[in-house]
Amino acid sequence: MLKTRLNSPGKPYSFRTQNSMGKMGEIILDNWLQKNYKILDVSEVRKYQDIGIDRIVMRHDSTTVNVEYKFDIASSRTGNLFFETVSIDRNNLPGWGWQSQADYWIFLLPDMEVLVVKPGMLRNLIWQSRENIVDKEVQNSSYKTLGIPIPLSEVRKIASYSKYIGTKFNYSAVRVR
Description:
By secondary structure, the chain is an alpha+beta fold. Helix content is 28%, strand content 31%. It has helices spanning 15-33, 46-49, 75-78, 96-99, 119-129, 152-158, and strands at residues 3-4, 38-41, 55-58, 64-71, 80-88, 93-94, 104-108, 113-117, 136-139, 144-151, 161-164. Strands 1, 2, 3, 4, 7, 8 and 11 form a 7-stranded mixed β-sheet that branches. Strand 5 (80-88) and strand 6 form a beta hairpin. The longest helix is centred in the N-terminal third of the chain and has 19 residues, at 15-33. It is globular, with a radius of gyration of 15 Å. Mean pLDDT is 86; it is low at 1-8.
């Protein structure tokens, strides 16, 4: 399932809002990828959820890669991507940044920029910068998520691929039920 990050400073996340935004991001990325690849959605399959894989993408040479989608809406406000280190603080549950076994992370930003990043590259960037980085807490309804804000400019430097795929994301098109 695509992870999204959209909240105002000091306000807890709403799972329903996050889920709706995530679904929109999944549709956008699926439509973009399906122009060139075959895609298998495994986001609802437990064994893939547990290892942070949303899609299996088949290349033209019939090889496959596992990808995890990320839709970081707050990046338009902060200028950073959020690298999740602890998913649920009270359980000390590792975040996707350390847990994911995907071959690639595909980040969708609100301006419809796509960044494709190898997890090892982003993790290496975190370790290289660790002394200068401060973990950020994000309040959810009954727990906190911890993570590291990474400047988009630094992520673009290590991205395997970057492309603008359309016009800016329309928040009003998302319905929360």
